[in-house]
Structure formats: C-alpha cells, structure tokens
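Q: What residues go here?
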C-alpha cells in the first residue's frame, strides 16, 4: 500500500481554488490532550509546530487542551477573552456555567489557548457515558480515571465547538484538527448532531497496535488477521480502542504520521488514512552553524567528567579513543529495539576484541523505570572524583603562582622541581582521597537501584551475556533508568546537550509510528540508527537514495529475522567505530543540511493538504 499526499490528484483545480478561498476565511482549532500538558511525544509535535501554524493562520488559529497539568500556571498565561470568535465562544460557555480558561500557551509562538478542567463535569459523567454507549457503543468502567478525564474533556470540547459554530458567535467556517483518542470523544457526537465543523482526526499510533507489537514477535505478519474486538478485550483497552475507531470513522478526514501506521489503521481501525502527516521540528531552534564541532566538543567533555567518575576508580581508558553511543525513550524492551541493540552491542564487543581495535565504546541506555534511589556507590564515586578535581585545582593554582614568582624573581634558569611548590598538606590530601576512591570492583552497569532489579530485561541480558564492564570489554554499558536533566547529580546537563556530546544515537525500533529520537539526533547534528519499521526510518528510506551518506543508518527489519537485523546493526556499529574522525565530522555537517527537510516550515504543507481535502468534503459543493 502506498499513500500519497497529493491534494491536486484528489481535487480538480477549479474546486481547489474555491477551497483555498474558503480556507483563507476559516478558523483552525487544534485539539490535543498534550496542549500545555507534557505527557508524551505528541506534546513535542504540537508545541514545535505552533510557530509555523501561526505564520500560516495568524489570529485564525487556536489550540485547545485540558487544564490538568500540575504545573499548568507555569505553562499557561491566563488573560481576558478577547472579542474575537475564540473569545466569544469562551464567554458563551462561561455564560452556560462552565469553567473555561483563556490565555496564551507559554511556548514559541504563544498561541491563543483554551483549556478545560475535565473534573468540573464529573457530576455529569453518568449522563455523558450513557450517551457514548447509546449513540456509539462505547462503554466505560467506573474505576478508570484516565478514561473518565478523557470523556469529560471530550464533552467540553464538543460544547466549545458548538459555541464556536453558533451563528451569533462566529460566521466563519471552523476546522477542528483533533489528535489521538484522548481528545477524540467529541468527534462522533459532533458528527451525529450535525454540528457544522470540519473535522480531521490524527492517530499518532493505534492503541491496539502498540499493545500487539509488544506481545507478538510476528506482529507485522499477523496484522491483517487480528480480530480487533477480541484483542481489545484481551488487553483490557476496549474503551480506548472503540473511542479511536469511532473518531477515525466520524472524522471527515483520517490522517496518520507514516506509512507504517497507515497499515495499522486499515486493519485495526477499518479505515485507510487519506493523508500522511510526517512529524517535524523547529530546526532553527537547534541551529549552531559553524559551531557544530565546537559544541560537540564542549558537551563531550561534560560526558567525559561523568565517565571518569563512573569508570576510572576501577580502571582507566583513553578518552581520546572513546566514543559515546546512546539510546533513549519509553521503556518498551522490544518495541524500542532495546533487545536488538543489546544483542548487537555484545557482538560488537566481541568483534572489536578480535580485531584488536583499541577504541572504547560507552553505550548509554536512557529510559525511565521505577527506582528506589541513585546507587549510593555511583553517587559517592562521582562526588569523590569531584573532590579530587577540586584538590588538583588548588594544587595547580598554587604551583602556577609559585612558578611565576620564582621564574620572575629567581636567578636560576633551570626548570624547577614542581613538587617542591606543593604543600605537604595538599599532597597528603590528594593521596588519601585517591586511596579512598580506588576500588577493585567493576564499574556498575546501572546508575540507580531499581524497584524490580531481578525482573529488568536490560539487566538480565547484560548479566547473562557477561557484558558487565570488564576491563577487557571494548563496549562499556551505562544504564541510566531516569531521564537526564540539568538537575541530575550524575550528569548535570540537559538531554539536548547530552545528545550533542554523543557520537551516535541507536534506535532500531520494532514498533515506532514515527520516532522523534533519531530526528532529534539529526537536527542536533549527531548520526543515528533507525529502522524501516519506524515511521521516520521508513520515510527517509523512501525519500533518500543513500541515507548513510548523511549519517542516518537504517536497519532493515521488515520481513527479516531477529538475527539478520542484529547482524545488520552490528555491521553498522562496527563500521562506525572504524570510521576516520574526519568522515564523522563531515557527517555532522551533512546532517545540518538534511535536517532542513524536517523543518515545520516545510512539513506543515502536508497539514494544509489535509485541510484542503476536509474542506472539499464539507464546505465546497
């Protein structure tokens, strides 16, 4: 199956002109659970796209979300509702007795924003749920609070769109673009009641697809044969799947983010998407131009600090011959490709030893699992190393000052014994601190104490394969089961800075509707591995004849065995380790050029095509 984003193929040119005229007068409301509410990857999609949407739609654009984030006041600046259609609809809802927040989302572009507190209609949940069951066959259990919030939010979205399309409030056409099932319960009700609003629904990943892929190693081979009702009940997600299906069929246009997810929509939602909406980023935000290599060096040195604190108390290795690889994202062992990454790393370790390659690869796994605390030994090692550095700084300053004085004032032209310039107190302190720091234990493969250490799949693989940071290992492992931030006592740097300091991102996903992590690497000028089962990897495979030349490596996993894919990844990693430094630097600069394609200023054209197609179905006779 191949989908094309070619509006002109679906709409004749005369009607296209009429549609564009209508669109120039239309209002666009973009609705998502992630507006001013950072709970997933869609937050990045909506937030990063805002400036480009503002450029195209101006004051005809508004975003709608839930008033639920615990720190919402830091993300949202409330203000008086203006006398424009969006503001008048807000005031109309307030006159009806609803709590409605109007203001600006404090992100780039500062879009007009309307937020609803779903808890305000909890007293009406019984009625709201009954209508969903009576009209659309969607049943709700009383004990699922997320479902309760979602259906309450959907009810408020429906009321707002009905207010916005009230002729006394607004005479312009209204386009509502709704993202994901969590914002979608309004769609079937609006369609049933004949509300004059043009609706586009985007599923970024089907609910059922994610669960099936995690549990079926032959998900793609079985995709055409699943019984969606049976599987939804099996995974206890029947309500959410039915919401998603009702939205997919109730919207005027169904869209998704990639060819990979489009196949899921056909078989699991029962509708073929009309338009694909590839995800992008605000590339200018990441631009550093000629500073690419200097910035990489700056943050690589910060990673050096962590690595010295983590490994050097046990043994040292040459940091000038060390490469930093990483993977990150939600902890889904198979879906995110952690299983194949670990297998490839074990094979890479063996290959590097056999080939006598003296380089070291430090591989970081950055994800999130329930933890009890940071490992005290890891934290103590980092703190002790910092004390060693502070002591050395004092000694360096003391030696420098005395050397300058003796050189200027002394008559001896012989180079002095610098150790004579260091006080015995500092010599003793440095010696004692080093003695305390040194250990015969192996460096830990994990930085935190997990709640479920024995059940962790990453740890179980590392222990079973004996990839546990032996001195002789060419591949070292740092499993960091918490997301990186500048407040972390271990890393002390933001995730984006950490990425810039690394040499390669590794994301050979088995299930990934799009995949922002390799795209974030691209815009940060860091080479990355993806797979053809990830939407992003599939996209660049189709649009680029030789992605590796620009630093993007694609593991072919479709219709391939696990062993075959692991061998491909091992080959790619082994080749990258041996690549001359000059070629790796050249890749970084090529990535800067390649990233421009994924700037929202280019990719919002796909959204405009979706709006054209939807308006052709609802507004132009």
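A:
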């Amino acid at each position: 199956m191949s989908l094309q984003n070619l509006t002109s193929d679906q709409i004749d040119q005369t009607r296209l002109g009429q549609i564009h005229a209508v669109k120039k007068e239309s209002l666009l409301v973009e609705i998502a659970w992630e507006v001013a509410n950072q709970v997933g990857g869609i937050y990045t999609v909506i937030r990063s796209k805002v400036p480009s949407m503002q450029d195209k739609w101006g004051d005809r654009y508004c975003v709608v979300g839930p008033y639920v984030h615990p720190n919402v006041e830091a993300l949202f600046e409330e203000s008086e509702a203006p006398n424009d259609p969006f503001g008048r609809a807000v005031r109309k809802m307030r006159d009806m007795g609803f709590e409605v927040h109007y203001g600006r989302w404090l992100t780039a572009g500062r879009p007009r924003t309307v937020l609803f507190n779903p808890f305000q209609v909890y007293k009406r949940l019984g009625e709201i749920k009954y209508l969903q069951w009576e009209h659309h066959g969607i049943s709700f259990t009383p004990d699922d609070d997320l479902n309760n919030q979602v259906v309450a939010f959907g009810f408020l979205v429906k009321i707002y769109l009905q207010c916005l399309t009230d002729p006394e409030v607004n005479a312009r056409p209204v386009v509502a673009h709704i993202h994901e099932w969590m914002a979608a319960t309004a769609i079937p009700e609006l369609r049933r009641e004949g509300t004059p609003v043009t609706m586009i629904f985007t599923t970024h990943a089907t609910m059922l697809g994610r669960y099936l892929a995690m549990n079926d190693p032959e998900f793609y081979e079985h995709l055409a044969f699943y019984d969606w009702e049976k599987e939804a009940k099996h995974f206890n997600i029947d309500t959410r799947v039915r919401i998603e299906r009702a939205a997919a069929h109730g919207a005027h246009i169904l869209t998704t983010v990639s060819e990979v997810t489009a196949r899921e929509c056909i078989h699991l939602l029962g509708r073929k998407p009309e338009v694909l909406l590839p995800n992008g980023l605000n590339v200018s935000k990441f631009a550093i131009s000629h500073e690419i290599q200097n910035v990489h060096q700056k943050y690589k040195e910060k990673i050096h600090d962590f690595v010295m604190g983590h490994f050097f108390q046990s043994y040292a290795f040459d940091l000038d011959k060390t490469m930093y690889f990483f993977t990150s994202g939600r902890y889904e062992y198979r879906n995110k490709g952690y299983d194949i990454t670990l297998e490839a790393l074990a094979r890479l370790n063996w290959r590097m030893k056999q080939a006598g390659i003296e380089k070291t690869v430090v591989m970081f796994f950055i994800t999130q699992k329930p933890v009890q605390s940071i490992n005290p030994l890891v934290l103590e090692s980092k703190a002790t190393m910092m004390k060693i550095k502070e002591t050395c700084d004092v000694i360096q300053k003391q030696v420098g000052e005395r050397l300058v004085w003796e050189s200027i004032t002394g008559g001896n032209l012989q180079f002095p014994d610098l150790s004579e310039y260091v006080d015995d107190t500092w010599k003793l302190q440095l010696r004692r601190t080093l003695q305390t720091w040194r250990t015969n234990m192996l460096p830990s493969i994990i930085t935190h104490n997990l709640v479920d250490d024995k059940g962790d799949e990453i740890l179980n693989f590392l222990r079973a394969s004996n990839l546990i940071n032996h001195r002789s290992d060419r591949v070292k492992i740092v499993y960091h089961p918490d997301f990186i931030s500048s407040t972390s006592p271990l890393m002390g740097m933001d995730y984006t800075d950490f990425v810039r300091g690394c040499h390669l991102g590794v994301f050979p996903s088995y299930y990934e509707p799009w995949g922002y992590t390799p795209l974030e690497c691209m815009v940060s000028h860091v080479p990355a591995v993806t797979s053809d089962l990830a939407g992003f990897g599939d996209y660049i495979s189709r649009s680029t004849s030789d992605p590796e030349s620009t630093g993007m490596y694609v593991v072919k996993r479709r219709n391939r065995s696990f062993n075959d894919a692991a061998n491909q990844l091992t080959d790619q990693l082994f080749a990258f380790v041996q690549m001359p430094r000059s070629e790796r630097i050249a890749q970084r600069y090529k990535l800067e050029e390649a990233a421009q394609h994924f700037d929202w200023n280019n990719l919002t054209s796909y959204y405009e095509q979706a709006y054209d197609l939807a308006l052709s179905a609802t507004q132009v006779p």
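A: Context that may help when evaluating the design: The radius of gyration is 28 Å. The domain at 7-277 is CATH 3.40.50.2000 (Rossmann fold).
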